[in-house]
Write a structure and sequence with these properties.
This protein is of the alpha+beta class. It is globular and about 75 Å long. The two termini are about 25 Å apart.
């Protein structure tokens, strides 16, 4: 891949008549413009791009259709990351509770790490395990299980895991095909084994927690693990938690204790998952479920009925006030095609983040080119990572926004947004790789 980039740079240098290393100048910008037009000004894709200085807030070095609106896909997670850094402390809210007589009433705060095998921190579970006479107050509206504009038929895929007020086991069943047989966590669900021809190892029934397992997958010699979402409900949560705690967890709807909850209740919060661990997992793996639950978790500071809309509205009345009505943000993950951002908008969010913490800390949350996350196979360099950026991909959509370190020691902010193409995103990644390496050498 690196040799291909070098060849591409030589080719593009001939096109734009590069004359060797130099400081930023009008010539640099003209050559960058030629490079962008050569690679992206065609009928096969709708592209927007911006490059700006991280140190000089108003200094835009180059832009191309930077005010057009695009579907951002998982670039939306940059905003979720921003909100989380602003409103979450060292730990997420695990759950909150109040006590009456000898009974503990508790509600969820949306922590995605509770009994999730992918997270070691289980502070909330440890606290809950030590309490007796537990009553889970079900405040959930099942209409919230998916975000606005999500594709309903993705229900059986991990990337569309249902949102909920109190996730448990990551709201998924973990199926592992091993030499000793099938392993299933949690193991409380009915399954069937048969011949399925959709190319899927395990698929859930649409409206039931019944899982169909492909016989061929079970017979594979290699160990394989898949995560399949279950349909969350308050009843299921209470049942799973009872089994895990080995004691009864009662379930009550919120309206049955409404007066108790409204009569001067003093809620106590219990620490949940480590914020930074959760954020890195979201950013590196582009985890949609985590992103959605983070917005819920933020809102738990303000309301019992969790709401991503409340967080989005708060952001647009504070740090994103100038952008209200100019862009559209509807979910935490970017699964929705209702989201509409511009490269300029994303670059300003990245600029705000750059001022929020040290560069070293900030970059530790982002995928690093050639090293980790969703860009570990792209944008690398023999001298180490120089691109720290978040990807965003849906069918016909690929975006890359973040930071690029140049040979001269500068840190620049960029946003590439591509919409409306057919086929694979690979050719656009190759072109972006050429452009980013050129920027590294020439700015």
């Amino acid at each position: 891949m690196f040799n291909e980039v070098i060849a591409g740079l030589i080719f593009c240098s001939l096109i734009v008549s590069c004359v060797g290393p130099r400081s930023m100048s009008k010539s640099n910008v003209e050559e960058l413009e030629n490079l962008i037009l050569t690679n992206f000004d065609g009928a096969d894709v709708h592209t927007g791009f911006i490059l700006r200085d991280s140190k000089k807030k108003e200094k835009v070095l180059f832009d191309y259709k930077a005010d057009y609106l695009f579907t951002p896909a998982s670039n939306t997670k940059i905003l979720t990351f921003y909100a989380s850094k602003m409103y979450l402390d060292k730990y997420l809210n695990g759950y909150k509770y109040f006590e009456r007589n000898d009974t503990t009433y508790f509600v969820g705060c949306g922590d995605p790490g509770f009994l999730n095998q992918r997270f070691e921190d289980q502070l909330a579970f440890s606290e809950l395990r030590d309490k007796e006479n537990l009553v889970f107050v079900d405040l959930w509206n099942s209409d919230q299980r998916w975000g606005p504009g999500w594709s309903w038929d993705d229900y059986s895929y991990y990337y569309a895991t249902e949102r909920s007020i109190f996730p448990i086991y990551g709201n998924t069943v973990t199926f592992s095909s091993t030499p000793s047989g099938l392993e299933m966590v949690p193991g409380n669900f009915p399954t069937s084994v048969g011949n399925y021809n959709k190319g899927e190892s395990v698929r859930r029934a649409e409206s039931q927690n019944i899982f169909n397992i492909d016989k061929k997958w079970l017979k594979m010699n290699d160990q394989d693990t898949v995560y399949i979402p279950f349909n969350w409900s308050g009843e299921l949560f209470a049942s799973l938690l009872s089994d895990t705690l080995r004691k009864t967890v009662k379930l009550v709807p919120s309206n049955s204790i409404g007066r108790k909850m409204d009569s001067g209740v003093s809620w106590k919060f219990v620490n949940g998952s480590s914020r930074d661990t959760v954020l890195r997992k979201m950013m590196y793996d582009s985890d949609n479920f985590i992103a959605e639950q983070l917005l819920f978790n933020i809102s738990s500071n303000w309301t019992n009925k969790l709401s991503s809309e409340a967080v989005i509205d708060t952001m647009f009345t504070s740090v994103l006030k100038k952008w209200k009505g100019k862009v559209r943000w509807v979910d935490g993950s970017g699964l929705s095609r209702y989201n509409a951002f511009s490269p300029r908008f994303i670059s300003e969010v990245l600029l705000n983040l750059y001022d929020f913490s040290s560069e070293e800390e900030l970059f530790s949350y982002f995928p690093a080119g050639g090293v980790r996350g969703t860009i570990q196979d792209w944008y690398g360099d023999d001298d180490g990572p120089f691109v720290f950026a978040k990807t965003g991909t849906l069918t016909g959509v690929h975006c890359l926004s973040g930071y690029v370190k140049t040979k001269s020691g500068r840190t620049l902010i960029f946003s590439f947004m591509h919409n409306g193409y057919l086929g694979s995103s690979s050719k656009y990644k190759r072109k972006m790789e050429i452009v980013l390496h050129w920027i590294r050498q020439n700015f």
